[in-house]
Every structure is written in C-alpha cells, then in structure tokens.
Amino acid sequence: MKSVAELKRKIPVCDEVDVLVCGGGPAGFCAALAAARAGAKTLLIEQMNCMGGIATAGGHNHLCLFSEWANKVRVIGGIAHEMCVKTVKMGYGVYDNASFDFELEGLKLALEQMAAEAGLNMLYHTLFADAMVKDGRIIGAYIQNKTGRQAVLAKMVVDATGDADVAASAGAPYEFGRPQDGACQPCTLMFTIGGVDWDRVCKWRVDKDGKHDYQMEHVWLEAQKNGDMEPFQRTIMGFWWTPTRPDQVGINFTHIFGVDCRRADHLTKATIEGRRQAFHMIPVFRKYVRGMENCYMISTASLLGTRESRRIVGEVVLTDKDILARKDWPDNICYGSFFIDVHNCTGPGMDGETYRPEPGFRYQIPYRCLVPRQVENLLVAGRCISVTHRALGSTRVMPQCAAMGEAAGAAAALSIKNSCSPRTLDTAKLQDYLRSTGNIIDEDGIKKANA
Ligand SMILES: Cc1cc2nc3c(=O)[nH]c(=O)nc-3n(C[C@H](O)[C@H](O)[C@H](O)COP(=O)(O)OP(=O)(O)OC[C@H]3O[C@@H](n4cnc5c(N)ncnc54)[C@H](O)[C@@H]3O)c2cc1C
Considering only Cβ atoms within 10 Å of each terminal Cβ, which end of the chain, N or C, has fewer? Predict the structure, then answer.
C-alpha cells in the first residue's frame, strides 16, 4: 500500500489524568465511574454523543443477564445494577433482576446524571487515535476531535472500545475471529419501529403447542417462500419492548456477514446494508405479523452492532471449557451466566457452537482476563477481554461487560494508590474493594443480594 509520512508537529496536551478510559459503552461507563468514585482523576472519551455504547447509540434497549441462567437469582451488582434501578425510578424502563428493558433516551439521561454526580469528566465526539507507549508502559493517548489532534497523559488507561483499539495500538497481542478461518459473528444494525399493537403481537406469537414463539421461524420462512423477504435471517433475535413506550419495539434481526470491524470501509458498508435490511422488513412485518399491520420505521441505530472483533490475549484466556465446567478462579471479579450465544458467522440463524445450559448456570470471570500481556498500566474491559471465540458468545453480554468495566476502573485506581502495575495488583485488595461497592463476586455476595 502507498504511504506518506505524517508531518512532524507538536501535539498539545489537553489533559493529564490518573485514569483515561477509552470508549463509553457498558464497560467504559462503569470503568470510568468506578475510577472517579475511587478518587482517581478520570477522563472518559467516546466517539458518539452519549454513553451506553450498544445499549444506547447501538439501539439495543435490552440488557441481560443480571441473574443466573433461567431464574431470578441476581449475580450482578455494583454500578450495572444501580443504573437499572435509577432508570426505572426515572420512569424509563423495567427491571426484574434478570433483564432490563428501557427507553434508549432515558438510559442516556440516567448515565449522564450518574456521571455528573460523580464529577466524571467526559469528552464526546472524540476518537482514540493512537497509544503513547514508553518502555513497555502506556503513558497516554493521542485523541482526535473537532479541536484537532491532542494528547492525554495518563497513569493508567482502560481500553473499553469493544474492539481493543488501544491494546492493539499499544502492541498488545490479540486474536481475531474463530480459530478455523478467522470469521467473526455477524453484525446487526438495530432499529426501532412504532405503531405496534404489542398485546396482539404477544397473543398471536405462539407456536403450534400454544407456547411463546421467540424466534417465529415459520413466519420468516413463509415470507421467503412467497418471495416477500430476502433470506438474510430466519429467526428473530429480539423484539425488545418497554411498557413506558407501548407502541414501540426495538428489533434485533438484520444480519451482516464478513464484516471486519477494524476497518472503516467495512463498517460503512455494513451500516448501509443493515439499514437497507431494516427498511426491507417493514412491509414484511406489516403483512406477516399480527399487531404490526400499521408499523413504521422510527430509527436505525447510529452505531453498528458488533458482536465480535479483537480479543486481547491476557494473563488468562477464559475458554468455553472453563465456563461450562464453572471453574472457580482465585481472582474472580464477577459472574457470567448467559448461554453460549454464537450466531452463524456465514449465514442466517445460530451456529452449531451455541449451547443452552441448565437453569441456575453461572460461572466466574477472572481479573487476569482484563490484563493484556506485554503492555503495562493498561486494562481491557468488555467485549474485547481475553476469551476464546466460543467463550465470547457468553461473556459479551452487557451486564457482564459493565461488571468487568467496574472492576477495571477500580483496579486502575487501586494500582495508582498502591504504586503498582495492574499486573502486580494484589487481587485480594481489589476483591475487598469490589465487595465494599456492592459488586457480587462470591457465594456470600449472591446470598446477600438475594436475601
Ligand atoms: C445486535 C446485538 C445484540 C445483542 N444482544 C444483547 C442482549 O440481548 N443483551 C446483552 O446484554 N447484550 C447483548 N449484546 C452484546 C453487547 O451489546 C455488547 O457485547 C456490549 O455492548 C459490549 O460492551 P462494551 O462496553 O465492551 O462495548 P460497546 O457497547 O460496543 O461500547 C464501546 C464504546 O466504545 C466506543 N468506541 C469504540 N472505538 C472507539 C474509539 N476508537 N474512540 C472512542 N470511542 C470508541 C463506541 O462508540 C462505544 O460507545 C448484543 C450485541 C449486539 C451487537
């Protein structure tokens, strides 16, 4: 590829902080809030105009699981739990200790209020551009926004970009896609429709045995047989409804394959294709779904939904075997409990790697999955932590990303207090701190939260 040298220029340092958090999704928001609450001078940068990541800009108005699989025993606490309770109190959603369904705009507002209460400093419309690394330690980041190119110096950096942009730029090792061919799970552009009679949809949405039909496969196959629908998908991945907006439904249905989320040209093409698929579905819903005869498009998401991108290689790589064996870790920082949810990487529907566990399933996520190899003073949280392709099918869901984020933010602040690197941080101290801030990391925590 042709290349040019960048002009040598002085870059202004716009801030010097204890903790810089890149990316304001569930992981980054909780990381930044935790670091700020722990007394660290913290800056959060986010490329969009809100916090919440896929939960807001990504249009996904449903978070799960806060509980063990298929029951209501809550295993997630801390900031993740707090943000649900707050949003419900404000009148923008419902939460039953397992799932949280909400209005996108309401969650944006709730997160901004929580940030303001903690005095968290943020910069929207700001891209992480490059890592500043000296002697194997990250010392800050170059950022790009309307003001221009600037630098932020930081004692610790948390990479919560979902794509491990910071870790990759700093030279930390990572993996991408499934082992056999590097393919990633498909992307989805979420969209919201209005004009829905939800009661009628629910009454009609049953299978031949009268049970709730989540995926409605026969409906889409019939539409495809009649030539009314393109075959990009054949199962509903989510109709997300919130009682405070009774005629609106968030739709997880578009499926876009072969997207390399490290590339802007791929993200652009995928977004255009996702929007095309979303509009294509409106007449299909009107014709085939009872209760959706008068539905119309409200919005497509501003942020493309990425299920899989870079996964760092950390001190521990959590595997699907560890998850299914419910392995205990001495440095547990939170629980996961979602099924192994792997979408077909090359076609519609789910992949054969998908696995639905028994009710009550939960497993531990170790701190060392957040600590990348080779680069000091860097932590990674959320979708891009150190897990295998199949394990990611479960760890990637938002309550878990949020809990990991809180642990990463707390670990960054504690590392500064203890004058150590996150790699050598005494994890017992981190665990004590997480317990003291309402996080659930052991059996006692589960008992207390569910008493
Ligand atoms: C279609 C779809 C359906 C899903 N369904 C569910 C579900 O039902 N329940 C559930 O709980 N989870 C679900 N998930 C999973 C979940 O949404 C994601 O895995 C989760 O949001 C990851 O959290 P995160 O904070 O790591 O990343 P994200 O939510 O992706 O947030 C990353 C943030 O970083 C910002 N960013 C990225 N790069 C940069 C940069 N270079 N500079 C500045 N900012 C940057 C982004 O704008 C974004 O705000 C779904 C995901 C998708 C895509």
Answer: N
CA of 251 relative to ligand 1 center, distance in Å: 16
**Beta-strand runs (E) in 242-339:** 249-251, 296-300, 310-312, 332-336
Pairing of strands 42-45, 121-123: parallel
332 phi-psi bin (left φ>0, alpha ψ -120 to 50, beta other): beta
Task: Record the pTM.
Answer: 0.98
Say how many CA atoms lie within 13 Å of 239 toward its Cβ.
25
The Å distance, Cα 104 to ligand 1 centre, comes to: 14
Question: Of 260, 284, 300, which residue constitutes the final position of a domain?
Answer: 300
Spatial distance between the Cα atoms of 400 and 387, rounded to a whole number of angstroms: 13
**pLDDT of 186-202, one tens digit each?**
999 999 999 999 999 99
The Cα–Cα gap between 448 and 308 comes to 34
Q: Is the CB of 63 under 6 A from ligand 1?
A: yes
Q: Using the atom order of ligand 1, give the atom closest to the CA of residue 382.
A: 26
Relative to the CA of 402, which ligand 1 atom is closest?
Answer: 25
Question: In this predicted model, what pLDDT tens digit does every residue of 418-431 receive, in sequence order?
Answer: 999 999 999 999 99
Index of the ligand 1 atom closest to the CA of residue 127: 42
Protein residue with its CA nearest to atom 53 in ligand 1:
305
CB 247: neighbour CB atoms within 10 A? 15
- Ligand 1 center to residue 54 CA distance, Å? 4
To test the ligand 1 pocket, which listed residue (128, 397, 400) has its Cβ within 8 A of the most ligand atoms? 397
Domain that holds residue 54: 13-178+308-327+366-449
pLDDT tens-digit series, residues 83-134 = 999 999 999 999 999 999 999 999 999 999 999 999 999 999 999 999 999 9
Please state whether beta strands 137-145 and 93-95 pair in parallel, antiparallel, or not at all (unpaired). unpaired
- Coil, strand, or helix at residue 176? strand
Q: Are residues 64 and 158 in the same domain?
A: yes
159 in ligand 1 pocket by Cβ < 6 Å?
A: no
Which residues face 297 on adjacent strands? 193
The closest-lying atom of ligand 1 relative to the alpha carbon of residue 57 is 49
Task: Give distance in angstroms: CA of 328 to centre of ligand 1.
Answer: 27
Q: Are residues 121 and 254 in the same domain?
A: no
